[in-house]
Amino acid sequence: MGKPIHFNILGEKYVLKRELGLLENDLMGRCSAHRKIIEVDARLKGFDYKSTMLHEFVHAVIHESSVNQAIPIQLEEIICDQIAKCLCQNFTIYPKAQK
Ligand SMILES: [Zn+2]
Fold this sequence. Notes:
single chain, 99 residues, alpha+beta, Zincin-like, 4-stranded mixed beta sheet, 4 strands, binds zinc ion
């Protein structure tokens, strides 16, 4: 197992975890702003993995900037989906090497 991957999201340290069992609960990933954890189902690969990771990453940005207090959750989901999809289609994104 490699080093855990961390993200700096507006000054808050989040950890990225691959979890088993999310898909069984109809989830590809989830973001806990309270626990500062981004979880992605361990079986996702390629585009599904990357777009899910970025979707949850955008949730974390929305929460850390308190934008979630100003928009309904349905709109937050659309924003996360569309930004993640566009980033995946236009950039090659890998988590930064961890020190
Ligand atoms: Zn979401």
